[in-house]
């Protein structure tokens, strides 16, 4: 194994940061995890939630999948991977907040819009979860530019996932009683900005503006 493997070098830096005698972060984390937030994000290598939000190990429970989708609730455990992680995060870890985090330039959403994946592929079946977002986009933005359609569909897919979350009965119960908060966030990597879904207007509004536009 090459000693200059950049991933091993990366682990050594991590080791220095979190296992040093002066800052033994994992000494307590080894006793158990108590994350307060669950983030559901895309697999995209440019969308790394703990890095984007400055979270330390142990603070954030993360589910990542293509296009940050939440499948509709199914008692037959279809798409059991996401359902199992949701169950664990909500019922065992008692997270108090779930953030569905979409992003600009999402390849999954692009494939959904263009129907560019093979018909019988797992990817096609998975992306079908966001079909309502595709329909909404083409119904309301038929003549818009491809870039605007992509943005609309990326944001509509976040709404689809938030709506699907409320179909999980044990999760909806916690939202109703105020034990659990749901947020929809959108990372615009082109502008370096963060947008959030406004619960009243159902529109995305700036949470963190681009660096050069602090007044937005
Ligand atoms: Zn993506």
From TrEMBL:
<comment type="similarity">
    <text>Belongs to the beta-class carbonic anhydrase family.</text>
</comment>
<dbReference type="InterPro" id="IPR045066">
    <property type="entry name" value="Beta_CA_cladeB"/>
</dbReference>
<dbReference type="InterPro" id="IPR036874">
    <property type="entry name" value="Carbonic_anhydrase_sf"/>
</dbReference>
<dbReference type="InterPro" id="IPR015892">
    <property type="entry name" value="Carbonic_anhydrase_CS"/>
</dbReference>
<protein>
    <recommendedName>
        <fullName>Carbonic anhydrase</fullName>
        <ecNumber>4.2.1.1</ecNumber>
    </recommendedName>
</protein>
<dbReference type="Pfam" id="PF00484">
    <property type="entry name" value="Pro_CA"/>
</dbReference>
<comment type="function">
    <text>Reversible hydration of carbon dioxide.</text>
</comment>
<keyword id="KW-0479">Metal-binding</keyword>
<keyword id="KW-0456">Lyase</keyword>
<dbReference type="InterPro" id="IPR001765">
    <property type="entry name" value="Carbonic_anhydrase"/>
</dbReference>
<keyword id="KW-0862">Zinc</keyword>
């Amino acid at each position: 194994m090459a000693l200059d493997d950049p991933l091993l070098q990366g682990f050594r830096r991590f080791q220095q940061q979190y296992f040093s005698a002066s800052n033994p972060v994992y000494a307590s984390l080894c006793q158990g995890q108590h994350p307060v937030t669950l983030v559901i994000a895309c697999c995209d290598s440019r969308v790394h939630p703990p890095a984007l939000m400055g979270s330390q190990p142990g603070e954030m429970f993360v589910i990542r999948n293509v296009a940050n989708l939440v499948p509709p609730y199914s008692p037959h455990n279809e798409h059991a991977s996401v359902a199992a992680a949701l169950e664990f995060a909500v019922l065992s870890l008692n997270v108090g907040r779930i953030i569905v985090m979409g992003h600009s330039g999402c390849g999954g959403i692009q494939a959904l819009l263009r129907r560019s994946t093979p018909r019988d592929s797992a990817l096609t079946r998975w992306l079908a979860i966001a079909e309502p977002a595709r329909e909404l986009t083409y119904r309301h933005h038929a003549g818009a530019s491809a870039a605007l359609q992509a943005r609309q569909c990326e944001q509509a897919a976040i709404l689809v996932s938030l709506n699907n979350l409320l179909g999980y009965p044990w999760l909806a119960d916690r939202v109703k009683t105020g034990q659990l908060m749901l947020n929809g966030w959108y990372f615009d990597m082109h502008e370096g900005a963060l947008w959030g879904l406004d619960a009243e207007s159902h529109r995305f509004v700036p949470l963190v503006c681009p660096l050069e536009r602090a007044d937005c």
